[in-house]
Amino acid sequence: MEDIEDIGIDEVYIGAKHGFQTVVRELLSGRVLFVGEGKSADRLEPFMKKLKRAKVKLKNVAIDMGNACSSWVKENYPDCNIVYDHFLTEVQNYKDL
User: Fold this and answer.
1) pLDDT in tens, 57-73
2) What angle, rounded to 10 degrees, do the helices at 69-76 and 45-53 form?
3) Which of 12, 20, 9 is nearest to 44 (CA)?
4) Quick one: pLDDT at residue 66?
5) Quick check: 92 and 73 in contact, CB under 8 A?
6) Would you tell me how many other CB atoms lie within 10 Å of the CB of residue 72?
7) How would residue 7 be classed by pLDDT, with cut points 50, 70 and 90?
8) What's the structural domain count of the chain?
9) Which residue in 40, 48, 38, 47 sits closest to 14, CA to CA?
10) CATH of the domain at 87
């Protein structure tokens, strides 16, 4: 896990019974690193513990524009680049017209 530099964080709606799940993937390989219930930044705490134990130094994190994780990234990895999902950025720009 210590070789991870780039991750993507996304919320996926599973359905009324299970609600939202947060999925963290390693961007280069696509492998799933973590799945947590809900969509608040708090649900990433167990994942953060794994990152700290492995002394991971993230360089880039891809997230949705409305993702609550941007504050989590800024707090835990202040030198990390936040890359916003291009598709969702275009949708928001269209809505603003």
Assistant:
1) 999 999 887 667 888 88
2) 30
3) 9
4) 65
5) no
6) 21
7) very high
8) 1
9) 38
10) 3.30.420.10
Phi, psi of 21 (to 5 degrees): -120, 140
CB 34 within 8 A of CB 47: yes
Calpha distance 87→66 (Å, rounded): 13
17: tokens are 């019974």
The CA-atom distances, in angstroms, between 84 and each of 9, 17, 87, 91, 94 are 10, 29, 9, 12, 16
Q: What's the domain range around 35? A: 6-96
Backbone phi and psi for residue 70, each to the nearest 5 degrees, phi listed first: -60, -40
Whole-model pTM: value is: 0.81
The DSSP annotation for 47-63 comes to: HHHHHHHTT----EEEE
Residue labelled with tokens 């990234």 = 73
Q: Is residue 85 part of a domain?
A: yes
Tell me whether residue 1 is in a domain: no
The torsion angles phi and psi of 83, rounded to 5 degrees, stand at -110, 120
